[in-house]
Amino acid sequence: MNRLLEVLKVSFRLGLTSFGGPIAHLAYFREEYVKRRRWLTEESYADLVALCQFLPGPASSQVGIAIGIGRAGLLGGLLAWVGFTLPSVVLLLAFAYVLQGLDVTDAGWLHGLMIAAVAVVAQAVWGMAAKLANGKATAAIAIASAVAALLVPSPFVQAGIIAASGLLGWRCLRANDAQLSEPLPSTISRRTGAYFLAAFGVLLLALPLLRTAVAGHGLALFDSFYRAGALVFGGGHVVLPLLQQSVVPAGWMTDGQFLAGYGAAQAVPGPLFTLAAYLGFVSGPAPNGIAGGLLAVAAIFLPAFLLVAGALPFWNVIRSKPAFRSALSGINAGVVGILTAALYDPVWTSAIHTGSDFALALIAFGLLVAWKLPPWVVVAVSALGGIALTYI
């Protein structure tokens, strides 16, 4: 019980203070779990991050879940997720509640939030490309992935891009020959892990069929957000186009409402996947409101929990394979390409219409990259800038 409460307490504090996106979250986790509490070694933490980057879903949340499982079992993993996501879920539900019934389509502050999204995604592309696509082969994979995502904008194409990038990495990239670290802590048997992986696959295949056979917004909502969490590699920013294509064309909300939530998600701590709380709140017919928000959050994070719990028992064997390490490098480069395509559509095309818009985006980008200001500060500055643009 003491370990469970400890996991919840530490993860909740991280959920309150972890601004800056998944890469920043991983730095916060390293400081807390590795350097301060010594729950795992530096090498084991790096391998755990590699596993969660390979799995689809929110990488930082998956790392937290895995550390919670290693520390206090499956319930520890669940409490680690609850603690880390709860603050941002509550804040985004409150944001959606304040906005309900208001016509914010032409609001200047909303336009400023949309412009802030341009700067934040551009920063993510910049940083990830420098780290994950800095060679000729990986850059080629990233560019080809971006081209494919732009020419055929479909969630299923994204999954194909990830698979093709992994295949190219396996065939064309040199494996990382670094010495393996000690085994990662895990309290789950291989049989139990196999059950979790099977549940992930069954839900992924069965939910679309049930949605077709059984009408109802609740099932459609759960299917859309479960699929988003199950098919997206690379963390929060890459889920943006998949979510947008799931909720806007269906008529559940407008582009303006969607990007308002995205901007708000940048201003709160914790994982970007908690954007689902806002989207579920404002989406279409019932269930919406708080029930819709909580349903969407549960659906989008469920694949992450099933995959982490299922993969941990097998990871210590798989990670020793050089071919797998090569495939992982290709997948990371493909993620950079998908994110680059998302920067253009829908983020850029929805926000940048004039030279003044571009000027504000440049200011926001400079504040993030050169002055290293926290994203929530940049979001606030951009919202004020959007209001100012209405008077120019």
TrEMBL record:
The chain crosses the membrane at residues 12-29, 78-97, 109-129, 193-213, 225-243, 263-282, 294-315, 327-344, 375-391. It is found in: Cell membrane. It comes from the Bacteria. Pfam families: Chromate_transp. One of its GO terms (cellular component) is plasma membrane. GO terms for molecular function: chromate transmembrane transporter activity. It is a multi-pass membrane protein. Keywords: Cell membrane, Membrane, Transmembrane, Transmembrane helix. Belongs to the chromate ion transporter (CHR) (TC 2.A.51) family. PANTHER family: CHROMATE ION TRANSPORTER (EUROFUNG) (PTHR33567). This is Chromate efflux transporter. It comes from Paenibacillus sacheonensis.
